[in-house]
Structure prediction request, 291 residues.
Amino acid sequence: MAKKKSILDLYQMKENGEQAVWIVLYDACYASYAEEAGMDMILCGDSVGMIVYGMNGTVPVTMDVSIAHCQGVRRGAPNTYLIGDMPFGAYHASVEDAVRNAVRFYKEADVDAIKLEGGVAVADKIEAITKAGMVVFGHIGLTPQSSASMGGFKAQGRTTDSAKAIIEDAIAVYKAGARVLLLEGVPEEVCAFVHKILPIPVYGIGAGADCDGQVLLAADALGMFKKFTPKFTKKYADIAEVATAGLTNFVQDVKDRSFPAAEHKYKISGDPEEFQKLFDKMEAEFKASEE
Ligand code: KIV
Prediction:
């Protein structure tokens, strides 16, 4: 089994020009598959709200939900670098809230880093969490927690004004002490520029290839989520198709009584006649109690 990575390994990979791969997932079962596949990092993302709970966005996700899912992921992938995702509201009101909630991820879910969305506007929170000794991953560009103010889940940085704001955010996140930057939903030119100027690892999701590694949601990459597939996703499996076919077969097997078959049943141990006597006696007693 490969050794669990540290933040220093991520920097070494950048130095070596080796791409890092992370996946977003929310439970022990898929986390164990990711660890077996040799994933460098797992993000237990607040997209859990949409993928697991059927919400329309990530805003309603709470700290307790995020922590519970992170704990499951950690149990399933004890040797993989794990990032906890600070949900909306966990770091917006104050620096104190931000530090307290980041600490919860470390103490209760054994994470290696926390991620939060935003640039210039949250730089004070990034600085405080970093000063408290934790590793912060910044996340800018298309930030789902602010999709309402962006007018939906829309790519950012496509105009010079918007690109300038993203570059300013990237610099603010770096200067505040974030050790890693994630860019989501931006043109590859903008990502390439940020990657060129910043000394920290810069990863992308829907941000092109010119950076230090790639992130995808397992739900998209494995074809689990049927409602919507982002343009930037590549589908590596079709779990929805396999799962629907399997469940259809289960329904059919039970309806036509071909399941359970002999191999799925437990056997009595002992004399069948003794069992029959027991059943007869208990049936008689039951009937008498009903009269
Ligand atoms: O929660 C999530 O899925 C994320 C990814 C979009 C990076 O934050």
Q: What stands out?
A: The pocket of 3-methyl-2-oxobutanoic acid is lined by residues 24, 43, 45-47, 85, 184, 205, 215, 217 (CB under 6 Å). The chain has twelve helices and eight strands.
